[in-house]
Amino acid sequence: MVTGHDTATAVERGTGLTIRRIEQVPLVVPLGRVYRGSYYAMTHRATILTRVHTDDGIVGEAYAADEVDTQAAIMDVVRTEIEPRLIGQDAFAVERCWELGYPVTFDQLRDRRIGLVALAGVDTAIWDAIGQALGRPLHQLWGGYRDRLPVNIIGGYYGAEDEARAEVEEWVAMGFRGCKFKLGSRPPAVDAARVEACRATVGDDFVITIDANQGYTLPMALELCDRVRDVGIRWFEEPCRWANDARDMREVRARGRIPVCAGQSEHSPEGCRDLMQAGAVDVCNFDSSWAGGPTNWRRNAAVAHVYGVQLAHHEEPQVAGHLLASQPHGTYLEVFHPDRDPIWWGLIENRPELEDGTMRLPDGPGLGWHYDAAYIDRHRADR
Amino acid sequence: MEFMRAVREAIGPDRRIMIDCGVRNRWTVPEAVKRVRAFEEYDLDWIEEPLGADDPEGYAQLRAATQTMIAYGEREWSPAGVERIVLTGAVDVVGLDPGRVGGITGFALSCDLLEVHRRQGNAHAWSTAIDTAASLALSWAKPVCRQLEEQPFKGPLQADLIGGAIVHQNGLMALPQGHGLGIEVDQSVVDRFQIAR
């Protein structure tokens, strides 16, 4: 309906949001310790800060891509394949921009994730530009269902057992009211004891999700379910090994009787749809930063909506918070400890404090984050 | 067939023909198969609602026996309904009516589903000019919608309600201007046709 309000947008001023260039700043930050999950280890936190410069001075800015080994390859894709196609495009035409970028995934001999992560960084920055042009935070533009989310801390990595209790106690002291606890490479009896110890430390009023990172066989996952069924597990993430995961997770749901979460390992909403059609998941944690950005994530949100599946988002709270808060079927935001994600805790100047275990999304336009220039200078990897 | 031939001869080989059977025509499955196969000689772009809004088995048989795109869906009342008919594997173009499928939000959700299933969406730009304007706005925004329909009956709720019907020029529709749906509703027309309650 036509209304009489006078707030001139960039489009109405005739200036548009024409994309002029795309700037990238790579960051690599060493971690204080090695983090070991089921069958993987992390030593660095990396990201790429992407800036989409537009004609009328608005600069869409977002960071994504926790990728150390492929950081240069991702930046090359943006510089040589995406930027040339987007120069001159209107950032408001975000679906068209996405379609222009999507061919970076077509080379089947290149790791498809490189193109998807490159596209995600640009797509997120374009959305930030749109939010700035409209003067609204993205969680409102994407649906506005709520303005705060409960936050789970990701932890419980394998290490010295006597450190585990101290780690969990620190979560409570930091104000968290929920966690995602790592397991999946020890015998289920051992892992179950670790989860029970966590519950004993945090008490009943604390959300515990568990994450095997595809570490167990189906019988192991079912044994783990039997052992922790009374511990109060909100969901069991990626319980089974990758090759047969949809069928196995359906079995875990039905026979293990603990809700199952997966989706982060899918490259597309189509793949997530197949998990939902297979009856494999209660919660889908599709990762926008690994799979083409918020534009693609929101398509999957529509699929989950009609399947009655809840939404989570693997890591990357700086964009996940806006996406999850926007949707009625969004659940918990997940963040790491400062030692594991120094960028979330160090780069963002206006990261909100926890209130009763929840985080209020920023009110500023777009993603709404203010980045610390000195932090960027200290950790940029291109100097 | 005579009519189809006449239309094709009149418009030439480059323009597309779609047939919409509407609510009144109900063919049997064999009749639909026979007709669609015959129409294919004249390059039919899609056949719309040849078996009505709810005949998944019939559509599966028609799909197996013909090569023309099948269109239906405008009488689905939710995105879940859209997902259900897409999963039959027998619909290529899904009709979407914002007045039925859950408003702009339901229409947009449905388009996201169609994107994931690689199916085409097509706005059912019917009812009043408000529904038409919403259909057009969504069609501009969503990649799965590849064309617009012009409502042919310019009654007062298509024309007077917004000070003149939305029409094409040389086969193209102009981008809507202004905020929101880009139309201005004439309250006097609303008053004139309002049903007393």
Outline the structure in words.
The complex is a heterodimer of chains A (383) and B (197). With 383 residues, chain A is of the alpha/beta class. Chain A contains 13 helices and 12 strands. In chain A, strands 4, 5, 6, 7, 8, 9, 10, 11 and 12 form a 9-stranded mixed sheet that branches. Chain A has a 3-stranded antiparallel sheet with strand order 1-2-3. The N terminus of chain A is likely disordered. Chain B folds into 2 domains: 71 residues, no CATH class; 125 residues, TIM Barrel, CATH 3.20.20. Chain B starts with a helix and ends with a helix. Classes of the chains: A alpha/beta (383), B alpha/beta (197).
Structural class of chain B: alpha/beta
Query: What is the CATH topology descriptor of the largest domain in chain B?
Result: TIM Barrel
- In the CATH classification, which architecture of the largest domain in chain A applies? Alpha-Beta Barrel
How does the helix and strand content of chain A classify structurally? alpha/beta
Cα-to-Cα separation, first versus last residue of chain B: 48 Å
CATH structural architecture of the largest domain in chain B: Alpha-Beta Barrel
Strand content of chain A: 15-25%
Computed over alpha carbons, the radius of gyration of chain B is 18 Å
Radius of gyration computed on alpha carbons of chain A: 21 Å
For the largest beta sheet of chain B, what order do the strands appear in spatially? 1-2-3-4-5
Task: Output mean pLDDT of chain B.
Answer: 94
